[in-house]
Amino acid sequence: MIFNSYEFIIIFLPLAFIAYAAAQRFAGWQAAYGVLAVASLVFYGQFSVLFLGILSVSVVSNYVIGNVLIRSTEAGKASGSLLAAGIIGNIVALGYFKYMNFFVDIANQVTGGGISHLETILPIGISFYTFIQIGYLIEAHAGQAKQQPFVRYVTFATFFPCVTAGPLVLQREIFKQMEDRKDSVLDARRIAVGSAMFTMGLFKKVVLADSIGPFANTAFNGVAAGQSIDMVTAWAGTLAYTLQLYFDFSGYSDMALGLGAIFGIMLPLNFNSPFKATSISDFWQRWHMTMTRFFTTFVYSPVAMKGMRKAVGGQYEPLRRYMVSGAWPIVFTMLVAGIWHGSGWVFVLYGLLHGVAIAVNNGWKQFNLPKISPAMGWLMTMSVVASGLAIFRAADVPTALTILSSMWGVSMLFPDIAAESVSLVLADVFPMILVFGAIVLVAPNTQEILSRDWLSCTPKPDSFSSFVESFSWRPALGWSVATAALFVVALTNIGSNSSFLYYQF
Questions:
Q1: Concatenated DSSP letters for 68-108?
Q2: Taking CA atoms, which of 325, 423, 477, 498 is between 20 and 30 Å from 156?
Q3: What does the alpha-carbon distance between residue 454 and residue 460 come to, in Å, rounded to a whole number?
Q4: Residue 341 CA: distances (Å) to CA of 224, 269, 272, 344, 389
Q5: pTM of the entire predicted model
Q6: DSSP assignment of 106-121, as one string?
Q7: Residue range 411-464, pLDDT digits in tens
Q8: Domain positions in the chain
Q9: What pLDDT digit, counting tens, does each position of 187-228 carry?
């Protein structure tokens, strides 16, 4: 059962909301959060009882450690060793389930040994709920958190709209809403707008992402199976995957925000038209925004601060100072972010590519090199993004290198005439790429369409364009009919084997 399933839409969601609303009306908000916590655990548990057990151990352990950290900090005895132990415990658990066999592969490559893979499992969403709780521990140690009832903590750590694939919420933005609830649980307008956002996200996923995905699968799976690929087909397959991932993750993010709003818990914005970015730094301020925030706050900033102290103390000349205090922290942070997505060398390469690109972009600005036009900046940014996603999607490094060498013409110097070629119907895929690309680059995004009713705890921009303001959704007959039609189209296109791509990360 996932967001784009009949079981979720027709059974789970209505029952969960009815129970939530009834509990609030008859027993208050604390009881409502109890129902929401149970509903979230049920939602997660239907993937696997074992997964639920692992999540439960993580939640209970972090809640206990967090409370001890909060009490220690309030008493003026902040325990750095306990924080370190809590973080290490989370990382070890994540490392075991997600990276152990990758470590085995590395050991075999280094030693030439024949260590067998372990029979491990990968709980859905473990990267997300682990890092959400690491953030909680860090903020508890910093004195930014208060002790919360266990029911509220469970809701925060397991809230079903974001437990499987984000956004990476912070405790302060969720607990504050729980403490200050003064709205009605049956706020008709909020529920209507949340449902509209969920519908738009559902349409993006099942109609757009799932329709172009097979073309990407044909290209990448073919190369992984040993087929050759020419430049045009390589670009077609990569752009198909780029748009598939865009609408898949954008759709999920919209659905998560809409579900949060329906239950009166506003989630942070996680997706903001990233393919309109004109620099790679701008891209990462728009794509997976809460992941960028997490790694900037908890990884980049401490490393950069240490580098800055080292650079100042060593009285480095400007270029070396930037390398130590700017470039290295960026590359290291993006390397960690790449590995966070999955175990495998393709994720290492993906992180390094983006880290180097951001370091070059920021250094270009810092040293006042000639300005790049927005059009050229967009073209360069999308070249890095597409190349990175070719690596990201590839089953292994050889597949990634084959795709990239074909995309950028290197393979033409060394043609593999013996290999069977990937067969992709370009007459079918290129029109979809053009139409979907136009939607991405020209159309207003979901939060712009729903800008009259801001559904995120992320602050609303000061203003939108006059076109967006005039086009924005409102509770009127026309918009209601359009939303209903969109929902019917999406509902009738739900497939039985459609899952969110970020579930695998």
A1: HHHHHHHTT---HHHHHHHHHHHHHHHIIIIIHHHHHHHHH
A2: 498
A3: 7
A4: 20, 19, 20, 9, 12
A5: 0.94
A6: HHHHHH---PPPP---
A7: 776 766 657 888 899 999 999 999 999 999 999 999 999 988 999 999 988 766
A8: 6-186, 187-271+415-505, 277-408
A9: 999 999 999 999 999 999 999 999 999 999 999 999 999 999
